[in-house]
């Protein structure tokens, strides 16, 4: 007999969301010079969680001025003192991790299982890691006494709101920069809560400034003449626009953009583990991951066996209330993103690929998309070329390792790839030939603060994480 | 003075290991600092630039796949070949830059030494910029630098030889291939360098040298979808901005112009500017009774 799961919701009582938020500038929440209030909703229910401020060009200017003013003292602080602030932040995040996990799940729609076990531990670890660098920069391989750049303008996406904040703010602060950060318009809340963590940590005012708003706010920040460094994670189209904006200036730029990662399964792969890796690769965070393994390349001889096992596994995934601890697949982040995923999946069908989803009931309200896989996909199909950023897997096949490599590299992107094989020399040979910044062999979607992350080609440039991640914020 | 009539050299491009004229059939007059005619150099076209990219792309697999030791020996061989042509280059540099004999000789010596410096880097840069990452889990995680691909190089306008080599050598030392736009006013040392590269075991297409109008050649290279990066060393402020905007179209890695004293020993930044970091994760498994586990 099959046992039903009883509901196991995580309590949201641990989070106290204010009805309305201003901008965090120079150490305090302030009102906008005239920007509107926007609403942020829970994607799982469409319930309005709070109102936040659309920062204007004047607000951005005020934030940059505050960061500039704070830079002098912050950059002159002994590294060991900056380190202790960052260690404090890491610890406070650990203390408040359940609250932040619930908040992130509410605002983003991703399962509590992921915010609790992946996002928040990685956020704290990132601050802890870069804290330790702050007084050791002389040993980082960039020469003696490397200098910070100044004010960093940082624009982050909605898929890992607090984790992307950590990836941006931790190395910037460790190296002595001050920051103005703009969270995504659909997920502003965890960044606003982070402002409170800065308060608790006693961080000097102006070192971290949070300006909320849509793309207009981001554009104003990127174009601000007194910003010395621009860091952006998001779409390739916006990344290119930013690269054009900073052209001809002295602003240092790092971009972490889209991907169309190939997950390559050879016939000698451990298939059960490969199935888990494929699921993790494309359904983690509803596939809203820039390094998702959105193209499955399977060797023809094991195609049938693998797809059978994969479909069986997908039928056991539980989609629903993101706050339920047993939920595997949460909500899509926004109506806009859902529309994009829906349109691309329809395009896949229209172009002749074969669509399959497990029997899966979608909740009546909120933004939902069933786990979907496409077979009979060719390299020319839109769903094999464009980043879908949703729970949609395109399956292609190959016969030889050379063909697998050629297909994997046949993309404008170059962020991630996966290799499944039991043969060590084959793994190394294939990994060597893949034009991608992160390669996972016999695993997928693993992240660590010590491990540099970033893309080749149109997936952007620069690395986040590890010793490499310091370079983006140093005058080297 | 002997009354023998000297033999002039026809300066040609260096593309794909061959020495073509510009497909356009155009040339332009190159003069010395006192405006005396030195030679006619090919006035390359956009088509020449595109052909050079094709050659550079074709050469990339072999050159990036060669062992670092092999690349080091090839670069060192370039220095050996240059050493034998010191006088020729000293003459060309003196003419090109209006330098005295002794100053030009010093420039050439520094240039040869620059090749030797970079030759020694080929099998060390990965150890300096890569390494194992101590991730919190049962994984072996290694970051390694890899060449970014085809790099367009706008060579310095003033330092026609030392500056040229100082920007080309770091690009190819790490396994990239290059399409080089020589100094517009003083392209002859660059074109002669092609003759040295051709006899130094550098595979054809690894370095391609174009002469002509910098702006005319740089624009199609900056916009080219199969070029991965661009070094703007020899572009003025207005051109550099224009090229950087064009380069954004396929997100080329861009090295902006900066003041450089080419006599100084360089750092590694001209190499790292055109390196990608690839990080590979491998499960370490365990040695339990069940054998490996993921």
Automatic annotation (TrEMBL), chain B:
SUPFAM superfamilies referenced in this protein's UniProt entry, alphabetically: ALDH-like
Keyword Oxidoreductase carried by entry: yes
Domain called Aldehyde dehydrogenase: residue spans: 24-254
Cross-referenced InterPro entries: Ald_DH/histidinol_DH, Ald_DH_N, Aldehyde_DH_dom
Pfam families per the UniProt record, alphabetical: Aldedh (PF00171)
Gene3D superfamilies in the record: Aldehyde Dehydrogenase, Chain A, domain 1
Keywords, alphabetical: Oxidoreductase
UniProt keyword annotation of ATP-binding present: no
PANTHER family assigned: ALDEHYDE DEHYDROGENASE-RELATED
Protein name from the UniProt record: Aldehyde dehydrogenase family protein
């Amino acid at each position: 007999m099959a046992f039903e799961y009883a509901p196991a919701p995580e309590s949201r009582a641990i989070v106290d969301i204010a009805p309305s938020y201003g901008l965090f500038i120079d150490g305090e929440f302030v009102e906008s010079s005239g920007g509107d209030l926007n609403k942020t909703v829970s994607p799982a229910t469409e319930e309005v969680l709070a109102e936040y401020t659309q920062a204007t060009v004047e607000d951005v200017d005020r934030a940059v001025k505050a960061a500039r003013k704070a830079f002098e003292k912050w950059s002159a602080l002994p590294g060991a003192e900056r380190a202790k602030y960052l260690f404090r932040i890491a610890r406070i995040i650990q203390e408040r991790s359940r609250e932040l996990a619930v908040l992130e799940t509410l605002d983003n729609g991703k399962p509590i299982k992921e915010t609790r076990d992946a996002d928040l531990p990685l956020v704290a670890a990132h601050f802890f890691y870069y804290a330790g660098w702050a007084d050791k920069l002389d040993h980082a391989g960039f020469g003696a006494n490397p200098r910070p750049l100044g004010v960093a303008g940082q624009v982050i996406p909605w898929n890992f709101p607090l984790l992307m904040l950590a990836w941006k703010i931790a190395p910037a602060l460790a190296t002595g920069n001050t920051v103005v950060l703009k969270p995504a318009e659909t997920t502003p809340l965890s960044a606003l809560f982070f402002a409170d963590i800065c308060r608790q940590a006693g961080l000097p005012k102006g070192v971290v400034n949070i300006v909320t708003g849509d793309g207009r706010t981001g554009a104003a920040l990127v174009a601000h003449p007194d910003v010395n460094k621009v860091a952006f994670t998001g779409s390739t189209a916006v990344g290119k626009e930013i690269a054009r904006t900073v052209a001809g200036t002295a602003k240092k730029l790092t971009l972490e953009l889209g991907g169309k990662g190939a997950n390559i399964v050879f016939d000698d792969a451990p298939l059960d583990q490969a199935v888990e890796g494929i699921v993790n690769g494309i359904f983690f965070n509803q596939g809203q991951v820039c390094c998702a393994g959105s193209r499955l390349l399977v060797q023809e001889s094991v195609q049938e066996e693998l797809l059978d096992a994969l479909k069986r596994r997908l039928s056991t995934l539980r989609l629903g209330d993101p706050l339920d601890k047993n939920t595997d697949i949460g909500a899509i982040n926004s109506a806009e993103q859902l529309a994009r995923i829906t349109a691309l999946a329809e395009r896949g069908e229209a172009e002749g690929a074969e669509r399959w989803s497990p029997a899966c009931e979608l909740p009546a309200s909120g933004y939902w998309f069933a786990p979907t896989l496409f077979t009979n996909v060719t390299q020319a199909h839109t769903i094999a070329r464009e980043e879908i950023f949703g729970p949609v897997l395109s399956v292609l096949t190959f016969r030889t390792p050379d063909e697998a490599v050629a297909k994997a590299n046949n993309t404008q992107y170059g962020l991630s790839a996966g290799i499944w094989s039991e043969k060590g020399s084959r793994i190394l040979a294939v990994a060597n030939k893949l034009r991608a910044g992160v390669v996972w062999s016999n695993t997928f979607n693993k992240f660590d603060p010590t491990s540099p992350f970033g893309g080749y080609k149109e997936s952007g440039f620069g690395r986040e994480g590890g010793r490499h991640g310091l370079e983006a914020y140093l005058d080297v | 003075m002997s009354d023998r009539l000297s033999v002039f050299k026809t300066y040609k491009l260096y593309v794909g290991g061959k020495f073509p004229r510009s497909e356009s059939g155009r040339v332009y007059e190159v003069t010395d600092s006192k405006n005396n005619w030195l030679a006619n150099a090919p006035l390359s076209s956009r088509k020449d630039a595109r052909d050079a990219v094709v050659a550079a792309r074709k050469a990339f697999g072999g050159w990036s796949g060669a062992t670092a030791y092999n690349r080091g020996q090839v670069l060192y061989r370039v220095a050996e070949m240059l050493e034998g042509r010191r006088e020729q280059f000293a003459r060309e540099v003196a003419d090109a830059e209006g330098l005295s004999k002794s100053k030009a000789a010093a420039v050439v010596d520094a240039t040869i030494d620059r090749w030797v410096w970079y030759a020694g880097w080929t099998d060390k840069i990965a150890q300096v910029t890569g390494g194992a990452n101590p991730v919190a889990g049962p994984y072996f995680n290694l970051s390694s630098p890899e060449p970014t691909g085809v790099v367009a190089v706008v060579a310095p306008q003033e330092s026609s030889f030392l500056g040229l080599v100082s920007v080309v050598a770091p690009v190819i030392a790490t396994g990239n291939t290059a399409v080089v736009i020589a100094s517009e006013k003083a392209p002859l040392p660059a074109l002669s360098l092609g003759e040295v590269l051709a006899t130094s075991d550098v595979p054809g297409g690894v370095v391609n040298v174009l002469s002509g109008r910098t702006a005319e050649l740089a624009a199609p290279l900056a916009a080219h979808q199969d070029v991965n990066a661009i070094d703007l060393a020899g572009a003025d402020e207005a051109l550099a901005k224009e090229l950087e905007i064009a380069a954004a179209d396929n997100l080329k890695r861009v090295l902006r112009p900066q003041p450089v004293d080419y006599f100084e020993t360089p750092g590694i930044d001209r190499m790292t500017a055109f390196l990608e970091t690839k990080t590979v994760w491998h499960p370490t498994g365990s040695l339990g009774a069940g054998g490996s586990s993921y």
